[in-house]
Fold:
Amino acid sequence: MTIAIFKKPNGIKRIVAAVLAAATLISVAACGSGNSASASKESLNTTKGKTTTITVGVCAGPYGDMVDKVIAPLLKDDGFKLKTKLFNDYVQPNKALASGSIQANLFQHGNYLKKFTADNNLDLTSLGQTPTLGLGIYSNKYKSIDDIEDGATVAIANDGSNLARSLGVLQQQGLVTLKGEVDATKATVNDIASNPKNLKIKTIDAAQLARSLDTVDVALVPGNYSWAADLKPADALAMEKQDDGVIEVFVVRTQDVDSDFGKAVKKLLVSQKIQGRHRQERVQGFRQADHLVTAAARR
Structure:
């Protein structure tokens, strides 16, 4: 009996100790989480006399150069140092931004941002549009749209937003017609109403489109990937007629829109400074954001 009574309190003591230890860990974790969130939020604000480093997610193509050569120099006097992180697909830059491992990204157009954030329940917001290199129709086999033969294989992006975008470009060139009632930003291959040249539509990852030119007759390649593959807009069979939804946007978490960084970027993107700086790095095929084109026309 003595032994039994002696062991029972020890058991209780061990249980109590374990509960207290767990409570302490939870308390520390909660405090750590709070400090981390605060630090993350403050990291997009400036401190007098100090430089704040911002990591911007990009994909292969011209937008990394745009951050390094155009946007970063123009934000230096605002107290920000920008560096880029390269991603190999269109999925990770938004997920990394939402998780806080990067502070901004520049790789996607407005339609893609809208669809991706809705599909993945992410709270991300565009700070504004940037100069944009459009999607092009490329071929190693044909020299013009009229040359495309009956039954040709045409590769387009398989992500929902760029798939719909590519179908819209094919429609612009009279190669397909989409059903009249379909939302042009959500169209799929099943929404093709007519295909007079019996084109074989092949959907693949956008990052593989330029490389696919060796195995397909025609490929519709988004601007960042055509740039990375050294495809020249002047050599395209046709370039997309860009509407507002396919212009590239600079994105942050919604909670950071009104941070010092968010305000500085918004101000920059509607200024003439970015137009002038971009002109120094400009290549044929880029479309300026509408507000910059309008402002330039007035001058």
Remarks:
- Residues 1-9, 12-42, 290-299 have pLDDT under 50 and may be disordered.
